[in-house]
Design brief:
- By secondary structure, the chain is an alpha+beta fold.
- It has three domains: 99 residues; 60 residues, no CATH class; 232 residues, Jelly Rolls, CATH 2.60.120.
- The protein is built from twelve helices and 17 strands.
- The protein has a nine-stranded antiparallel β-sheet with strand order 1-2-3-14-10-17-8-7-4, covered by helices on one side. Strands 9-15-12-13 form a four-stranded antiparallel β-sheet, covered by helices on one side. A two-stranded antiparallel sheet has the order 5-6.
- The longest helix has 48 residues.
- The N and C termini lie far apart (97 Å).
- 28% of the residues are buried.
Length: 464
């Protein structure tokens, strides 16, 4: 039987080998839902790049092994081709030599069996084993669907052409459609300015948006930089300064750089708050713990994971690392607020098209038990620290007042969520715009009322 092997037989065996490998690949690549929501964090997606790189290396090793195997088979076939051609031209003369007769018997009895073993040797074992191990970290169908929705969200929010985003021309300022849209949006913006001013006093008690779609439209316009603009007179009252928080001992000699971002409500930015090393430490501490955020859907009120917030977050306590403890102390020293009753530092990493739709940080009147389990009162203030540069998108926008704050690595934005009276400041409704280009890392500190009694005294008057 082995004597009937030909070059055609070897090809058939090799194709059968490839079919077996293909079958195994189908099994290995069957989607798994064990690890989903990879798309919700760029930090986790970077791991996928190295996973894929490892698989490519493993695949190349397999290809080299197959090539070596085929090279040996070809070398053996070429040698036998020459020998059999000479032998069959004069069979009697060839077999008349006893050594030739012995070698023929040895080849058919031994060497062809060795060749059969070589052909049947599976060089894909190492590759498939590595693939099986890495498969547990692969994205799921949910990730693919989530990423596709994120691309659609980016197209809608930033008014992009599908061909532009597919070819990478996302920020082309000379784009014909973008240029044409600008005048239209400026015209619409002027109309909205007038409407907003006429409706300023006609809100309900909670300042709730009357129309979700209307707010969504305004949110997207702000993300594109087309939101309500501050008047020149108001803007002239915004300043940059060196700030020492009432001659705080730590900042008398080295004050921090403070910049007014908005006047009513007062939103300030502190520059160069953390070093690159400190920010990288926070990221490394948070990355293994990042989990998809669960929040309330603005329309249904139910807990949901998408699309209200596309990010992953982790919580870091002051006791876990000296850097976290220093950050908390720095926040207290700069703001003058007691952070001992604040929530742990929340670190968030936004995914493909990562966003956080309009929301309030504080508990409203219809949510009297929002933070009851904490026993520290309502969220009096928010400290938001940007820990990465974002090339495009990712701004923090305040939909009620038409403000937009751009991410700037190492800077922190601070505002009060409550009036001195303790009532919620509904002007602080804000959102995180989708990340168009870049990897957005932020950390935030929600500071609560307890402990602030002598640091921010109660006042029956609301802020202007």
């Amino acid at each position: 039987m082995l004597g009937s092997f030909s070059r055609e037989n070897l090809v058939v065996l090799f194709l059968a080998d490839l079919m077996a490998i293909e079958f195994l690949l189908v099994i290995v690549f069957t989607p798994s839902l064990a690890h989903s929501d990879v798309f919700a964090s760029i930090g986790h997606m970077t791991d996928l790049l190295f996973t894929e790189r490892d698989l490519v290396t493993s695949l190349k090793d397999y290809i080299r092994a197959e090539e070596n195997k085929l090279a040996q088979i070809k070398q053996w076939a070429d040698k036998l081709d020459l020998l059999s051609t000479a032998a069959t031209s004069d069979p009697d003369g060839f077999l008349g030599h006893p050594v030739n007769a012995f070698k023929l018997i040895r080849r058919l009895n031994t060497e062809w069996s060795e060749l059969e073993h070589l052909v049947l040797t599976d060089t894909a074992d190492a590759f498939l084993s590595n693939l099986t191990i890495q498969r547990q970290h692969f994205p799921s169908d949910e990730d693919q669907s989530g990423a596709a929705k994120a691309l659609t969200r980016l197209l809608d929010t930033y008014q992009l052409d599908t061909d532009a985003i597919s070819t990478g021309k996302i920020l082309d300022s000379t784009h014909q459609r973008a240029t044409g849209n600008r005048k239209y949006f400026e015209y619409q913006l002027a109309k909205q300015n007038k409407v907003a001013q006429s409706e300023q006093g006609g809100r309900d008690e909670n300042h709730q948006p009357n129309d979700y779609r209307s707010e969504r439209k305004k949110y997207e316009q702000l993300c594109r930089g087309e939101g309500l603009k501050m008047t020149a007179r108001r803007q002239s009252q915004l300043f940059c300064r060196y700030y020492d928080n009432g001659r705080h001992p730590k900042y008398v000699i080295g004050p921090v750089k403070q910049e007014d971002e908005w006047d009513r409500p007062h939103i300030v930015r502190y520059h160069d708050i953390l070093s690159n090393r400190e920010m990288e430490t926070v990221k490394e501490l948070a990355k293994p713990r990042l989990r998809r955020a669960t929040v309330h859907d603005p329309q249904t009120g139910q807990l949901t994971t998408a699309p209200y917030r596309v990010s992953k977050s982790a919580w870091l306590g002051a006791f876990e690392h000296p850097v976290v403890d220093r950050i908390n102390q720095r926040i207290e020293d700069i703001t003058g607020l007691d952070v001992s009753t604040a929530e742990d530092l929340q670190v968030a990493n936004y995914g493909v098209g990562g966003q956080y739709e309009p929301h309030y940080d504080f508990g409203r009147k219809d949510e009297p038990d929002a933070f009851k389990e904490l026993g520290t009162g309502n969220r009096i203030a928010t400290w938001l620290l940007y820990m990465s540069e974002v090339q495009a998108g990712g701004a923090t926008v305040f939909t009620d007042i038409g403000a937009s704050v751009s991410p700037k690595k190492g800077s922190a934005v601070f505002w009060y969520n409550l009036h001195p009276s303790g009532d919620g400041d509904y002007r602080t409704r804000h959102a995180a715009c989708p990340v168009l280009l870049g990897n957005k890392w932020v950390s935030n500190k929600w500071i609560h009322e307890r402990g602030q009694e002598f640091r921010r005294r109660c006042d029956l008057q609301e802020d202007v």
